[in-house]
Automatic annotation (TrEMBL):
Residues 411-454 are annotated as: Disordered. InterPro entries: DUF6350. This is Bifunctional purine biosynthesis protein purH. Keywords: Membrane, Transmembrane, Transmembrane helix. The lineage of its organism: Bacteria, Bacillati, Actinomycetota, Actinomycetes, Bifidobacteriales. The keyword DNA-binding does not apply. The keyword Membrane applies. It comes from the Bacteria. The chain crosses the membrane at residues 12-37, 73-91, 97-117, 129-152, 172-200, 221-243, 285-309, 329-357, 377-400. It comes from Bifidobacterium pullorum subsp. gallinarum.
């Protein structure tokens, strides 16, 4: 009983400490930013609104949007969400990951969320049950990462996994999970690099928008840093753009590799980093082929690497084990299917979380088309993976066919060479030479013999 109570208290401490740290950090930063803006731009002191703004920001990080007059914001700052999840994970790893800890932390976390929701100055969009459900999902995700990050839990789950599955299933699961995680990481790095290229190429446009807004240097720096919490959202939109999907800012702006339309875009400085269309056709084709090439390289690695499936070409014709080779090809095909499914599901969820709204009508949808972008990434990755599978399949059995034909040709040649030799030997053995035994006699002896006969 004491252990359960202690676990509940630890869970409550996890939630309380996480909220205090996040609220303090965000609140102090917002207070500093509002103070600098008030000093540089003039007007009333806005620091008194720092705490309600911080609470609204924490709610927004959990996917709870709000209305502020005619302004609506539902785009989740994914970087802040990841930081909150990371803090929950760190405290759970330190204080425990048992069921009492989870229940105590979940109840405390949802209670704090309900308290903040009733104290904000903005109008929250979601009903109460949905807000609590989103809040519980954030805490559960953070706690789940801590559970799977615990060495004892991993060892226990690993033992159960080995007991319930065979070696082939474990091999397929290990390879598909590792390959999918690597492909997802590569894609996210590509998205981040794309946003960095946008920022470098379009920093002049951002400076012009700051000048149009008549913002001073301190306000520029602090507001730019504040926008960093939406950097993962931009990276996902950049990934969709570089692979050919594109993204839109409501009905007023569309950005793809072919089109860059931003006639009615609000003069927000962060919008200045959005890209222009790519006029170079070969470059556009190369960018669209990136997921296929990455899938091809990943598939070849899975097929040929000894730590994965290690499908190779035997040195001799006699070493071909067709049953083992067929088994490896079937297992690798299943692993590649699971990898493509994992990539598609992951990016469908990430794209859905990155979207949101900046208004009620024309800006009611900001982000990517989830179905279209997921289809582009998933299909290109799948084509690349199975192109690698087919290349290895054709290569292995092409070499097998060549060696089989060569072995057959060599055997026939040996038979042709051996047949005339055998025929000559049999013919010679069938003919028995005639041996005549005769004794040479001299003429005198022959004459004497004749006379005696007379």
């Amino acid at each position: 009983m004491n252990g359960v109570v202690k676990g509940l208290c630890k869970g409550a401490a996890v939630s309380a400490v996480t909220v205090v740290i996040a609220l303090t950090g965000v609140g102090f930063y917002l207070a500093l930013m509002l103070l600098v803006i008030a000093m540089e731009e003039g007007g009333e002191n806005l620091t008194v609104h720092a705490l309600p703004f911080a609470q609204t920001t924490l709610l927004l990080a959990q996917g709870i949007g709000f209305d502020w007059g005619a302004f609506r914001l539902t785009i989740t700052p994914l970087l802040l969400t990841l930081l909150i999840i990371g803090m929950i994970r760190a405290w759970c790893l330190r204080w425990g990951t048992g069921w009492p800890v989870f229940l105590g932390g979940l109840c405390t976390w949802t209670a704090i969320t309900a308290g903040m929701a009733g104290n904000v100055e903005a109008t929250l969009i979601d009903p109460w049950w949905l807000m609590l459900a989103k809040s519980a999902a954030v805490f559960t995700f953070g706690f789940g990462t801590a559970v799977f990050g615990s060495p004892a839990t991993r060892e226990s789950l690993s033992e159960r996994y080995r007991a319930l599955t065979g070696a082939v299933v474990r091999r397929i699961g290990r390879v598909s999970a590792a390959t999918g995680a690597i492909i997802i990481a590569i894609y996210l790095i590509l998205g981040t690099g794309t946003v960095l290229v946008w920022a470098i190429r379009n920093h002049g446009t951002v400076a012009e928008l700051f000048s149009l807004a008549d913002m001073q240097i301190g306000s520029r720096i602090l507001t730019t840093i504040a926008c960093v919490v939406w950097l993962p959202n931009l990276c996902l939109w950049g990934l969709s753009w570089v692979f050919g999907g594109g993204f839109s800012v409501g009905d007023v702006a569309t950005f793809t590799l072919w089109v860059s339309r931003s006639d009615g875009l609000p003069a927000v400085p962060v919008f200045g980093v959005f890209p222009d269309a790519v006029d170079n056709d070969p470059l556009r084709i190369v960018l669209m082929l990136l997921p296929l090439v990455i899938g091809l390289i990943a598939g070849l690695t899975v097929m040929l690497l000894p730590r994965c499936f290690g499908i190779g070409i035997p040195r001799t014709f006699q070493e071909y084990d067709h049953r083992s080779i067929a088994k490896d090809f079937i297992c690798s095909a299943v692993a590649l299917c699971l990898t493509a499914a994992m990539v598609s599901v992951a990016f469908a969820a990430l794209f859905a979380c990155s979207n949101g709204a900046l208004g009620h009508q024309r800006l009611s949808h900001v982000g990517v088309d989830v179905m279209q972008s997921t289809r582009i990434i998933g299909q290109a990755t799948l084509v690349g993976l199975f192109t690698a599978w087919l290349l290895v399949l054709v290569g292995v059995y092409a070499v097998f066919g060549i060696r089989w034909a060569r072995e057959r040709h060599t055997g026939q040649r040996r038979e042709r060479i051996s047949q005339p030799h055998d025929g000559v030997t049999n013919h010679e053995s069938a003919i028995t030479p005639r041996v005549v035994n005769s004794t040479h006699q001299a003429k005198e002896e022959q004459g004497d013999n004749n006379e005696s006969a007379d």
